[in-house]
Amino acid sequence: MLPAELIHFKEKGQAITILTAWDSISSSIVEAAGADVVLVGDSLSMVALGHATTLPVTLDQMLHHAQAVGRGFTRPPKEQPLLVCDLPFLSYQCGEDKAVEAAGKLLKNSSTAAVKLEGAEPEVINVIQRLIRMGIPVMGHLGLTPQSVHNLGYRRQAENIKDQKKVLEQAIKLEESGCFAIVLEHVPEELSIRVRNGLKIPIIGIGAGICDGQVRVTADLIGLTEKQPPFSPALIPGRELCIKALKDWIEKQHHEAKTPTKELPQQIRDY
Ligand code: KIV
Questions:
Q1: Is residue 78 part of a domain?
Q2: Residue 149 Cα to ligand 1 middle (Å)
Q3: Which of the residues 185, 190, 226, 251 is marked catalytic?
Q4: What is the domain range of residue 151?
Q5: What predicted TM-score, i.e. pTM, was given to this entire model?
Q6: Which tens digit of pLDDT belongs to each residue from 150-206?
Q7: Ligand 1 site residues, Cβ closer than 6 angstroms
Q8: pLDDT tens, position by position, 105-161
Q9: 137, 75, 129: which is closest to 107 by C-alpha?
Q10: What CATH code is carried by the domain that includes residue 203?
C-alpha cells in the first residue's frame, strides 16, 4: 500500500490501525495481528534502549531497528504493512539538506516507505515540503510532541481555545504541505473532531478520542513497559505473565537438578 492510499480508508470510514515495532519479533507479531501500518517510533529510545526520553536515539540506531523490523515481516513485500519510521531528534531540525539525507538514508537502507516528524513550525514546514518534493512521503505529528518534552512536558496539550486554534491551523498547514496523515497526541477530543472534520487526510489519534485511525506503542498495549501513559492502558499484564512463566521454568530447573539421575541400563552405559 502506498502512504497516499490511506486517504481511501478515511473516505470509506474504515479505521486505520498503526502499531509500533522495534525489532523483528515485535514486527512479526504486529504484522500477524493485522496492523495496517507499522511505525518504527522513536519511542524505541525508551522501549528498546532504556533511555528516559526519545531525545537520545540516533539516526543510525533508528535505521538499525527499522532494518530489523523489516526483516521480521513474514509476508511478501507487496502484502506487508506500510512501514513508517520516525525521524529522530536533530535529524531534521538543522535544515532541509540534513533532513533529506536522514530520511533518504532510512528509505535507501530499510523497508521504510515514509517518515514521521514532529511539529509545524515554519522551519519544519519547509523541511516537510522539501522531503515531499524529493519523493519522500511524510506523516505529521501534532499535540503532545515528545521531542519537545523540555518545553511541553508530557501533559495534555491544547487545553484552551487559543491553543486549539493553533493546532487546527498547524494541521491545515501540514495538509497543504502534502502530509499523507497526521498523528494527534494527547489533546481534547473536541479538538480532534474539529481537525478530523476540517481535513481530508486521515487524523491518527493517541489519547485524542475517536479519530480516523489510532496508533499505540505496542509495548504499552501488551503491558511490557513498567508504566503505561494514562491514555494507553495495557490490554494484558504482559510483564507479569512473562516473569511468571520464566520464574516457573527456573524453579523447574532447580527442582529437576535435585532429583537423582536415572540409572542407565548396562548396554547403554558401556557404549
Ligand atoms: O514514537 C512513537 O512511538 C510515536 C507514537 C506514540 C505515535 O510517535
A1: yes
A2: 13
A3: 185
A4: 5-243
A5: 0.95
A6: 999 999 999 999 999 999 999 999 999 999 999 999 999 999 999 999 999 999 999
A7: 20, 39, 41-43, 86, 183, 206, 215, 217
A8: 999 999 999 999 999 999 999 999 999 999 999 999 999 999 999 999 999 999 999
A9: 137
A10: 3.20.20.60
